[in-house]
Amino acid sequence: MSPTPAPNSRTIIVPLLLAALLGGGVAAGVTTVISDNSDGSGHTTTVIRQPAIASQGANGNKANVAEGLTAADIYQRYAPGVAFIKSEIIEQTNNPFDFGFGGAQKSEATGSGFVIDDSGDILTNNHVIDGATKDSITVQFADKKTVKATVVGKDPSTDLALLKVDPEGLDLKALPLGSSKDVHVGDPTIAIGNPFGLDRTLTTGVVSALQRQIQAPNGFAIKDVIQTDAAINPGNSGGPLIDSAGRVIGINSQIETGGSGASGGNVGIGFAVPIDTAKAILNNLKKGESVQRAYLGVTSLTVDGQLDALDLPVSHGALVQTVESGSPAQQAGLKAGDLQATMQNSSDPIVLGGDIITKFDGKPITTSDQLAQLVSAHKPGDKVKLEIVRKKATKTVTVTLAKRPAALQTG
Questions:
Q1: Pairwise CA distance, residues 180 & 183, whole Å
Q2: Does residue 316 have an active-site annotation?
Q3: Catalytic residue among 237, 244, 300, 368
Q4: Are the C-beta atoms of residues 219 and 19 closer than 8 Å to each other?
Q5: Which member of 23, 145, 392, 405 has the greatest number of CB atoms within 10 A?
Q6: Cβ 233 vs Cβ 266: under 8 Å
Q7: Residue 237 is a catalytic residue
Q8: Cβ(61)–Cβ(72) under 8 Å?
Q9: pTM of the model
Q10: Is 2 part of the annotated catalytic residue set?
């Protein structure tokens, strides 16, 4: 059963093949072609050449992989490992002439991916291949050779998927995987992908921010996301974000469109799922196993000095904003508030009157993100003790964490 929306709740509609991003972003990755006449002919390759972009690695030290590479060097070396992914999608339609029975429409989805090893594994975004019909996924490499690909594993909560091609007869060029932990704001970046179906396009920029949060198509948050100003557009999804030493630091996933009045193209803000997030689940994906994550079932807001004007009973913790219906949090009796407020100089509403989580298994909670991280560090079925403050009373409740559902219920 869907939860009753809190006073400040918003319904996020994620259309097929488009990942809605709070604040106006969309998936950077899928171009949908209703006709079947897109065979790649007439597409051009755009390469932006520039002088050497780096004599430093992503960690600020001299690059030990490939010092002083230009954008052209990186393109020549690693673009052959970037795949142009196509698949056939069956979309359900609500046509009034279907007399209430619904209908289906064929379309072609395109996106990007990149080779990670010699055995034929290709990493991409889940939304690039989500809903693809059986045996319809193909990948095309730089030599224009097109082969069939199968889905080995996928994780909707991080919007990642692993494809497999038969390596026999293919000259696969695996891209080296770096570490997103070494990334700093201002580091040069290169994105290679297939925007709008234009195969192997290269754009350059810098890391413009770190620790961003975007929303996966299934409604859950993806954390520690890398923001870049390298131009990313529909069709880039699943392609690599590369550092100055030629190492993959992220998987390009979404873009900020600048609001409802914008055209839907790039406005200089793109988001990449960190490569460390992919590496953490890669073994699961290779085995075709679902990634098991613990689930509490609340959304919360950090209690800090910015909320002093609200006269809350504590100065730190996570203020519960919503409690998912049927979740472990609801079963343990956690409650959200029912009073909506807006802080000065902010348009975002706050729900007051709910529980404030101040400790998680004895560890003080200082931010909402910390609470999420502590939950993520556990497994489904684990029992944890939460210290909460309800109005002015402090109490401890025991919660049995559950397995994260396939999608977040939004109303």
A1: 5
A2: no
A3: 237
A4: no
A5: 405
A6: yes
A7: yes
A8: no
A9: 0.68
A10: no
- Write down the catalytic residue from 155, 159, 187, 224: 159
pLDDT per residue as tens, the chain (411 positions): 434 444 443 322 223 222 222 333 445 544 333 333 334 444 333 333 333 444 333 333 333 344 568 888 998 899 999 999 998 887 765 555 555 555 667 788 888 999 999 999 999 999 999 888 888 899 988 878 899 999 999 998 899 999 999 998 888 999 999 998 889 999 999 999 887 767 778 999 999 999 888 888 887 788 889 999 888 887 888 999 999 889 999 999 988 766 544 455 556 788 999 999 999 899 999 998 888 888 899 989 899 877 877 778 898 899 999 999 889 999 999 999 888 877 666 667 888 989 999 999 999 999 888 898 899 888 899 999 999 999 889 999 999 999 887 776 543
Q: Which segments within 288-360 are labelled E, that is strand? A: 294-295, 298-303, 317-323, 339-342, 349-352, 356-360
Q: Which residue has the tokens 């079925």?
A: 381
Distances (CA, A) of 225 to 123, 267, 275, 388: 17, 18, 10, 30
